[in-house]
Amino acid sequence: xxxxxxxxxxxxxxxxxxxRVELYGTNVDANGSIAxxxxxxxxxxxxxxxxxDQLTYDRxxxxxxxxxxxxxFKGGQYHTISHYSRINxxxxxxxxxxxxxxxxxxxxxxxxxxxxSCEHDIDLKNGMVSGCNSxxxxxxxxxxxxxxxxxxxxxxxxxxxxxxxxxxVFYLPYFGYSTDKTRRSGLLxxxxxxxxxxxFRYMQPIYFAPRNWWDLxxxxxxxxxxxxxxxxxxxxxxxxxxxxxxxxxYFKEQSPYALEHDLAHIKHYGYDVKYRxxxxxxxxxxxxxxxxxxxxxxxxxMNDVDYLNLQQSDExxxxxxxxxxxxxxxxxxxxxxxxxxxxxxYQYLNVNSNGETIQTLPTLHYHRYLKSFFDDYxxxxxxxxxxxYYRPTGKRAIEGNFNVPLTLQTALFDDLIxxxxxxxxxxxxxxxxxxxxxxxxxxxxxxxxYAQLDHTFNIGTTLVKSYDxxxxxxLNPFAGYTSAGSRYYSGYYKTYHSNGECVAGNTNPACxxxxxSNPSDTLSMGFNNYLFKNGHQALMDRLSQxxxxxxxxxYYGELQNELEWKISEAISIYNQTAFNHDRNRITKxxxxxxxxxxxxxxxxGHYYSDQLRNNIPTYASYWTADAAYRYNRFYRYFMNVAYxxxxxxxxxxxxxxxYSQRCFDLGIRxxxxxxxxxTNTYASDSVNDSYIFISIILKPIGxxxxxxxxTKN
Length: 713
What we know:
Radius of gyration: 36 Å
Strand content: over 45%
Low-confidence stretches: 1-17
Largest sheet: 27 strands, mixed, barrel
Number of strands: 46
Number of helices: 5
Mean pLDDT: 87
């Protein structure tokens, strides 16, 4: 075995401070100030390991030359390969030809004819970059020149040409990307598209991250035959206990497009504010309280639904609804009491004005947590709320609600049977102010008071039995009877209780504030059934039935059943059914069947509803289905569909293919989607869009998506 020699160069220690160059090799020869190592030589300096066929080091100039299969490992992260390399350890410069560098974490590599570096900056000439196998890369970006900063992990390429399977597909005079996941300012992945009605579409996100506690993303867009606009997201973390975001947007239509499509607005704008704070009283007001406090803000406003439709080029991802709800919730809670304040604002997008929409600004809430007495035989809690019903046009109201339940409970027959009695006392008071709408009179808005006392008796048991193979069965039958006790009505509540006018579907403005239901005795029965296998729920079945008794006699409530059954590891069923005895028919049913495995995932669902609206049957039938098939580790096929059977209308359909490798994703999908719009002719209308999406992801750099859209009214 060859003897291993090593030499420590004392002269370089003087030149390089406390750091020294260590040279190892089977053969090490010293000739004056020059040391040459051969036979698998290795040099160590700081966090670098250098190997080659031959290493030569001049201790006077602190220059090392490496030739033949040169490998440099730096910091355990970056690896470079070249045929020849010259390193100056004093001024930290390096020359390599040819040059090959790879990032160990991301797998991204750069190859060039030659490279010169100084400290953290590397200048490159005539090369290519890719994340694929370097022997035969599926994709690569060729460039004439470039530079790489190993400190901030950023690469700039000039005259960049993207090639896929050696076929040129795209050219950019400049292309820059990050080699790590650090937040930094710059351009994000753009999206392109062509539409039959909107022309060429281009959206270019711009990202700003000057501080570690906030960032801003701006998304300017242009639709050449429709208009242009900008959307943005501002996100921040102001304390360790809070975070928030602000989304805003503005889009202006071109006049010919707005006229052709009869749009209600030529400008679309809005905002969306979210904020959450887990300790506002402590951090804002320096209050050292025993309990906890919280603030939640979710505020939205827009002038019409197209503010949502235009947020991104892929409009199928937008969530649209006729009703927009904004909320602000604040609470303080300790071990005995809860205090809350809730603000709710409703905006309906299918109308031109929300001036008569009732808002709750605010609701004040006090809750006394459940208190037990006499060894938990007696339970008492309490609630009080005050709600301000506000709207710009029409009457407004302030309503108070009070509720105090008192429960006596015990267990019988060695805890086999659980029984309880609850006396529930509640009251309401309401007052009105502001002006009436046209054709209204103040007499219909007199102050009202209401009180009630109900009695509820409950009985139930929970039976548990274990079987072999880690199987556990749980039965929970129960029954409850509520007796409608005393009632007191005065003023507003007495007027509309006596005449029975305020029922579902009544358009009397005064009925907007009437929330009482007719008193009746109620018998509730139910049966819960659970099956657990190996600690996981395999079956859940809940059956319930109500019977109501009033002055008109007795009648059945709807029989309801909910079933969730995991038949096997791959197959599961969900069903929810409601049966109306009076109409002798199923009034609601939801069914879902799913199959999930490593190769195939599929599901089919059906929603059915047959409800009475103003004593008129309202029918709905809605089908959904989805499936995905993984042919092998490269190819995945998928589809989904949503169909309104009652309206004979396809709401959404999608079919696509995803080709995926370690370094490359190619996706193609065809989508049909129906989206709402606001027009002058109809307050609520919709259009049908057909898309072809093509997405290309160059891992780990990123990618883009191109889509073609065809729109029909």
